[in-house]
Amino acid sequence: MSWVKIKKENMNDYPKTLKRARLQWTAIFTVSIFAIVLFFSIFIIRIQHTTIDARLDSRLIELTNLSQNALDLFRIQNDESLPSFLFEEGQSIQVYGPAGNLRFTIGERMPENLQLPENVEGEIKKERLFQTIRFVDKDGNTREVRTYSRVIKPKLPGVGDLIVRAGIDVKAVNEEKEIFRTRVITFLLIFPLLSFLMAYLLAGMVLQPVKENYNLLRKFSFDASHELKTPLAIIQMSTGMLLSKKDGLEESVSKKILSIENASQRMDRLVIQLLQLARAQEYNESNSAKEPVDMNQLMAELLAEYEVYAQKKAVGLVVLGSVQKKPLLNKTIIRMVIGNIVENAIKFSPENSPVQIRLEEGKTSVMVQVKDF
Question: What pTM value is reported for the model?
Answer without folding.
Answer: 0.51
